[in-house]
Automatic annotation (TrEMBL):
Superkingdom of source: Bacteria
Keywords for the protein's UniProt record, in alphabetical order: Aminotransferase, Cytoplasm, Glutamine amidotransferase, Repeat, Transferase
Subcellular location, principal: cytoplasm
Free-text function comment from the UniProt entry: Catalyzes the first step in hexosamine metabolism, converting fructose-6P into glucosamine-6P using glutamine as a nitrogen source.
Annotated active site: K359 (for fru-6p isomerization activity)
Name of the featured protein: Glutamine--fructose-6-phosphate aminotransferase [isomerizing]
Reactions accelerated catalytically: D-fructose 6-phosphate + L-glutamine = D-glucosamine 6-phosphate + L-glutamate
């Protein structure tokens, strides 16, 4: 590959390390402090149109789909527009009802994923408005969409996506803030989110400094045959993405579940050989999440928590800096990218090119 490795052994490590800089780039020049909003030049959506949107449907594959799930939550929270994300590959095969009041958002790092492109083309044929949240400038999905925003993560070479995931979620936070300020988000909440966004690059660097500790933990858990990842509401898509990351690079089986659903099945799997990674933000669900940790501990499960404070019931906690509740998911997945990386390294995997996977799936 033609990109400079900058002293890193793998592109995955390099790309994880570049995240503060990348987030800085997606924010640059877009914040409007006077109106507590952000400007997204290429959106191509007038305020009047934005006010008439009644639903948002986000379509993507793999990691981009997970970024879209967090994006849907951000849009619901900040703009109060009912939103959800669906794998583009599923959407295009179920003859979906295409509704004129729904705004469709296609999300893709490469901008070339065939299932996403085909979904966009089908939507456009039916007269829908489609925006793109895309990393590669001038890519097929970016060209096909009616407008949208670039993610500005820079080139991503490793097959598994890290910095682009983070930047995509930040791009969704910008879109949510923009839509929110056209609709019902107050000036003070707009300012609160902007301040939170500005804190992200520094907080990402703080997280990256804990790498030696995460490396130790990864070695400790690398003998697991299978791992459970749990989170609730904001933490759930973070758990899903972390579980995908681990299985992609380390080939350890991993499954993500909402912490609230533990008692409806996964508790049966808990035993010392089946560790759980739990996303435990300091938000209004903290006590609920703690109760889930207790349930797991009572069944002798090993627990690694990612939290804003040390969790007593966990065997280990990776403590991450707190941001605004809505923006916490952007930070909480980052230590688990390093966890997946160091697990794969300990197991001697081909980190940048995991078996059977491709960076961009441009065929059906
Ligand atoms: C492939 C890659 C994933 C990626 C997905 C979607 O499966 O291995 O890392 O998340 O495609 O790619 P896109 O370029 O559309 O984000």
């Amino acid at each position: 590959e033609s990109y400079d490795m900058g002293g890193h052994d793998t592109y995955m490590h390099k790309e994880i390390a570049e995240q503060a800089e990348a987030v800085d780039r997606v924010l640059r020049g877009r914040i409007d402090d006077r109106f507590a909003t952000v400007h997204l030049g290429g959106l191509n959506l007038e305020p009047g149109e934005a006010r008439r949107v009644r639903r948002i449907k986000i379509l993507g594959c793999g990691t981009s789909y997970h970024a879209g799930q967090i994006g849907a939550q951000l849009i619901e929270e900040l703009a109060r527009i009912p939103s959800d994300a669906e794998p583009a590959s599923e959407f295009r095969y179920r003859n979906p009802v295409v509704d004129p009041d729904t705004l469709y958002v296609a999300v893709s790092q490469s901008g070339e994923t065939y299932d996403v492109l085909a979904a966009v083309q089908e939507l456009k044929r039916k007269g829908a408005r489609v925006l793109g949240v895309v990393n590669v400038v001038g890519s097929a999905i970016a060209r096909e969409a009616d407008g949208g925003t670039y993610v500005h993560a820079g080139p991503e070479v490793c097959v598994v996506s890290t910095k682009c995931f983070t930047n995509t979620v930040v791009a969704f936070a910008l879109l949510a803030l923009h839509l929110g300020r056209i609709r019902d988000l107050s000036v003070s909440d707009g300012k609160r989110i902007i301040e939170g966004l500005r804190r992200l690059p520094g907080q990402i660097d703080e997280i990256l400094k804990t790498e030696p500790e995460i490396k130790k933990l990864a070695r400790e858990y690398a003998d697991a045959k299978s791992m459970l990842f749990i989170g609730r509401v904001r933490g759930y898509p973070v758990a899903r993405e972390a579980s995908l990351k681990l299985k992609e690079v380390s080939y350890i089986h991993a499954e993500a579940y909402p912490a609230s659903e533990l008692k409806h099945g996964p508790l049966a799997l808990i035993e010392p050989a089946m560790p759980t990674v739990a996303i435990v933000p300091d938000d209004d669900l903290l006590e609920k999440n703690r109760a889930a940790l207790e349930e797991i501990k009572a069944r002798s499960g090993r627990i690694l928590a990612v939290a804003h404070q040390v969790q007593e019931k966990a065997d280990h906690t990776i403590v991450v800096p707190k941001n605004e509740d809505e923006l916490d998911p952007i930070l909480m997945g980052i230590p688990l990218q390093l966890f997946a990386y160091h697990t794969a390294l300990a197991l001697g995997r081909d980190i940048d090119k995991p078996r059977n996977l491709a960076k961009s799936v441009t065929v059906e």
